[in-house]
């Protein structure tokens, strides 16, 4: 059966100190902390979700912060750059903002677009590009007004150890369309209007090393639970070892590692992040799955407190 994902659902990365993480993604980039929960597989570690006003699919940047985590090395088998998209005409605002807040950046040019490339405090490689497509964010925070805010993902640059095989997966499993090739990169596009542009190295890259400042996995969108079951069958039919369907509270997930070494997830658009707290207070309270609620005091005691705050240099 032919399947086509709309694009990126979320991207999840390793970082170190959780407050530094919140200060960068909320304080500098102006994203909303929409969910504060834990890594269900490592209960002493937060799982923090940032995005637009509700963390819509295609906007959710998520993190596993672990104080004192060793720094990783970005390379093959990983997402190399996470691309954020802003409205047309907003790139100058972001240049000025990064200068104001002391974030070093450089300009990069590919496929007739200009990107601002920079790192977060853990060395995670990020970039901002302006494009027409995709709904505007309705979230304003600190010095970032809604009309200049990050809309969500523009896409990503994938670093593959076997790019021909990764491209085959993008095309024949995920249903992306090849639309260009330039400067050692090949560009693919999905059907959605956010998280829809994927660039990948044309030549093999050496393996990266997981750790703070690297991406753990990239997730692709499935419409709902019925579609998700079909995605699992579809991935398995292409010869991948795919996990069972896992309940992540805010979406259902399956995982498989494509042959270029990158961990792929397929996640449902539903139910979203307003299932266990109201829109007005998203991200304010630590949310735990029902099976851990009786251990809340213990779980919270293992986590460093975090606060969403406007940075001093932004006041």
CATH class: Alpha Beta
Classified in CATH, the superfamily is: 2,3-Dihydroxybiphenyl 1,2-Dioxygenase, domain 1
Average pLDDT: 97
Gyration radius from CA atoms, angstroms: 18 Å
CATH architectural type: Roll
Pattern of helices and strands: EHEEEEHEEEEHEEEEHEEEH
End-to-end span in angstroms? 54 Å
Number of helices: 5
> What is the CATH topology?
2,3-Dihydroxybiphenyl 1,2-Dioxygenase, domain 1
Structural class of the helices, strands and pairings?
Answer: alpha+beta
Q: What strand order characterises the main sheet? A: 2-3-4-1-13-16-15-14
Strand content: 25-35%
Number of domains: 1
Q: What profile does the largest beta sheet have?
A: 8 strands, mixed
How many E strands?
16
Domain VOC: 7-131, 152-269
Keywords: Dioxygenase, Oxidoreductase
InterPro entries: Extradiol_RC_dioxygenase, Glyas_Bleomycin-R_OHBP_Dase, Glyas_Fos-R_dOase_dom, VOC_core
Protein name: Ring-cleaving dioxygenase
């Amino acid at each position: 059966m032919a399947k086509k994902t709309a694009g990126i659902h979320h991207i999840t990365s390793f970082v170190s100190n959780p407050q530094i993480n919140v200060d960068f993604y909320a304080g500098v980039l102006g994203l909303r902390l929409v969910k504060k929960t834990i890594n269900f597989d490592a209960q002493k570690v937060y799982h923090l979700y940032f995005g637009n006003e509700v963390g819509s699919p295609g906007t959710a940047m998520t993190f596993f912060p672990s104080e004192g985590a060793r720094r990783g090395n970005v390379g093959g088998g990983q997402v190399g750059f996470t691309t954020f998209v802003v409205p047309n005409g907003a790139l100058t605002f972001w240049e000025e903002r990064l200068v104001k807040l002391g974030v070093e950046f450089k300009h990069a040019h590919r496929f007739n677009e200009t990107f601002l490339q920079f790192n977060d405090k853990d060395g995670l490689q990020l970039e901002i590009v302006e494009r027409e497509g995709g709904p505007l964010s309705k979230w304003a925070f600190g010095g970032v007004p809604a009309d200049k805010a990050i809309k969500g993902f523009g896409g990503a640059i994938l670093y593959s150890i076997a790019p021909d095989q990764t491209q085959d997966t993008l095309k024949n499993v995920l249903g992306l369309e090849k639309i260009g090739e330039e400067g050692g990169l090949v560009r693919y596009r999905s059907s959605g209007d956010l998280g829809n542009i994927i660039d990948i190295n044309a030549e093999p890259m050496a393996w990266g090393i997981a750790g703070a400042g690297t991406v753990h996995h990239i997730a692709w969108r499935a419409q709902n639970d019925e579609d998700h079951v079909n995605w699992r069958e579809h991935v398995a039919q292409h010869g991948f070892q795919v996990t069972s369907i896992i309940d992540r509270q805010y979406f259902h997930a399956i995982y498989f590692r494509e042959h270029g070494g990158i961990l792929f997830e397929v996640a449902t658009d539903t139910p979203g992040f307003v299932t266990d707290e109201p829109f007005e207070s998203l991200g304010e309270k630590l949310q735990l799955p029902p099976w851990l609620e009786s251990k809340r005091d213990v779980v919270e005691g293992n986590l460093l407190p975090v606060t969403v705050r406007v940075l001093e240099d932004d006041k």
